[in-house]
Amino acid sequence: MPLNRRTFLRATAVAGGTTAFSGAVWQHAFAAGPAQPGPGPYGAPLAADANGLQLPKGFTGRVVARSLQRVEGTRYTWHPAPDGGACFADGDGWIYVSNSEVPLVGGVSAVRFDASGKVVSAYRILNGTTLNCAGGATPWGTWLSCEEHDYGLVYETDPRGERSATPRPAMGRFKHEAAGADPVRKVVYLTEDQPDGCFYRFRPQTWGDLSAGTLEVLVGSGTGPVSWARVPNPQIWTTPTRQQVAGAMRFNGGEGCYYTGGVCYFTTKGDNRVWAYGASAERLDLAYDDDLVTGGEPPLRGVDNVTGASSGDLYIAEDGGNMEINLITPDGVVAPFLRVVGHDGSEITGPAFSPDGTRLYFSSQRGKSGFAAGTDGYTFEVTGPFRH
């Protein structure tokens, strides 16, 4: 962005025109305004390994799956353009689910690991949908897969593949991106990937049942106190949901969404921001803004999917940039955690931790070729001494 805008934003932040992200307000908050560059808790990424992963000391990586190739040890062919994902505990092992961001056949695949981390099966849990981008896990153990087009739906899926996937039209028809479930307030937050998109929450009539409820949109004028207003026609509309409520806040390309400890974090790619919605105070703040970085070049560009560790660290994947996953610590330091080399035309998607927090999964959507159809996608696993 232009230097004059960055200078203006810095000045207003210092003067109080942009609300600082106060660490005293809620759990996992940052100490003194939007995160700033600094040394990460694991040190800098080292030289690339055989898979093109630059990882910190003590960490190792492997390729779990390749698009249009059989997942090792199974007869299942992994999907193209892997995107949003999440992990679910399953017996003595766990399951990683991954969306496919392609038209018409999109859907979701899953891969199951045993207690040692060995792949034991892979299978399909959603078929025949289009441009399944990101989504989110629910507290009752389902995966919400979101379609990214103007009439897109949220589909509730079973990571084990034992129950049929179900569309949830009450959650609205719009260009869905990601979802984050808040079990305290019993709502699901939703992002919208439009240059003038909105931030929503869905209040189901019965918690645990997403078949009926109320869709609301965030209303406000910027950081600070905000409120919610009902979207009149979330399912069948001639006026898009984002244009139905006067005063609805605009967000430039909503992407990842992750709820933890009373805060819903979400990202906007058009202005490289990580937002923090404090649910109990109904307050919006900035956790990161590349225009507010004061010490050198911003390390985090092209913000996209986001997840968190039990330590309170946020992990934010880059769409483009230099193909990094950056972390933001609870004390407000942003630093690269890993980098993928040789995938310059791709983006990092689907970061998610195994239930025990020792393994991080993610994908390079278009792989080394950068081909838009995502036929060269890679899904990785990183193992190491993640802090808790």
Automatic annotation (TrEMBL):
InterPro entries: PhoX (IPR008557), TAT_signal (IPR006311), TAT_signal_bac_arc (IPR019546), WD40 (IPR011659). Keywords: Signal. The keyword Signal applies. Residues 1-31 form the signal peptide. This is Alkaline phosphatase PhoX. The keyword Signal applies. It comes from the Bacteria.
